[in-house]
UniProtKB/TrEMBL annotation:
UniProt similarity note: Belongs to the peptidase S1 family. CLIP subfamily.
UniProt-recorded name of the protein: Peptidase S1 domain-containing protein
Signal in keyword set: yes
Organism: Strigamia maritima (European centipede)
Span of domain Peptidase S1: 51-285
A Pfam family: Trypsin
């Protein structure tokens, strides 16, 4: 006869197995995530993965790159300086946040040291989310931040130009951010990382989704390189294109959402800046310090 405590142990183990099965996530191919490090369903390892398979940038290589932090210094998103007063970022970065709780940092390179050059923090006066922003599918994922005081631009801190009206399909573009250089390592990089991607046409991008295109519309831009991607924590940061004739950088996209960062067969999705030029103009009071194409 089996002792009672063995029966109790067996029942307990079966209960644990049942709970494990019920709690296991349903595996769905290419489940989307937004790229903000502050996520409603955080992964213990992947919350700190950002630029995947990038390389270290040079100090001051991206003088328009913005780091968004909380008052306590916690980094939650990126952005791009477009004038003396205004920053563009992703709407989902600022949703349910207060302007008083956000710090805009410019000129950062290695956040583990104060000896990497000059950086400066700015307070936020207010911000505007696009009125038709839909978080679920990241439609109109764009926001404008106004700073309380002006940025005095120099070689180390300088705004990026807004783009000409073209598709950029087939062009090389660059993203930058602070984070892990390997998708399997959850430790963020102290040093700014950069990554070159290829901008895809709408048709090429749609082919990656195998007919499911609810996340892709004319206001989205796709960029891709095998096993390389922006990832969680890079949200709101710039996708920049460089004019090879003038060497001037243009903001063509805002990091918005992706599918399993760095997955071989999935591109990242970016808010297409050319779709929002009129909205940006109307909400920046036609700021004369903005560099238009």
């Amino acid at each position: 006869m089996v002792p009672h405590y063995y029966l109790y142990l067996l029942a307990f183990l079966l209960l644990l197995l049942l709970l494990h099965i019920l709690a296991a996530p349903l595996e769905i191919n290419s489940t989307p995530y937004d790229l903000d490090v502050v996520t409603t369903l955080p992964s213990p390892r992947n919350d700190f993965l950002r630029i995947v398979s990038g390389v270290p940038a040079r100090n001051n290589e991206f003088p328009y790159l913005v780091m968004l932090t909380r008052i306590n210094g916690y980094v939650f998103c990126g952005g791009a300086l477009i004038s003396n007063y205004y920053v563009l970022t992703a709407a989902h970065c600022l949703e349910n946040k207060a302007a008083s709780g956000i710090v805009v940092r410019l000129g950062e390179y290695d956040w583990s040291t104060i000896n990497d050059g000059f950086h400066v923090n700015f307070q936020v006066q207010n911000f505007i989310l696009h009125p038709k922003f839909i978080r679920l599918v990241a439609y109109n994922d764009i926001a404008i931040i106004r700073l309380t005081s002006p940025v005095y631009q120099a070689d180390t801190i300088k705004s990026i130009c807004l783009p000409p009206n073209k598709s950029f399909a087939g062009e090389k573009a660059t993203v930058a951010g602070w984070g892990a250089t390997d998708i399997n390592i959850g430790v963020p990089s102290h040093v700014l990382q950069k990554l070159d991607l290829q901008v895809l046409s709408q048709e090429s991008c749609r082919s990656f989704f195998h007919g499911s295109s609810m996340y892709l519309n004319k206001d989205k831009l796709c960029a891709w390189a095998q096993n390389k991607d922006s990832c969680k924590g890079d949200s709101g940061g710039p996708l920049a294109w460089q004019n090879q004739s003038t060497k001037r950088h243009y903001l063509i996209g805002i990091i918005s959402m992706g599918f399993r960062c760095g997955e071989t067969n999935m591109p990242g999705l970016y808010t297409r800046i050319t779709s929002y030029i009129d909205w940006i103009k109307s909400n920046t009071q036609n700021d004369t310090t903005i560099c238009w194409s």
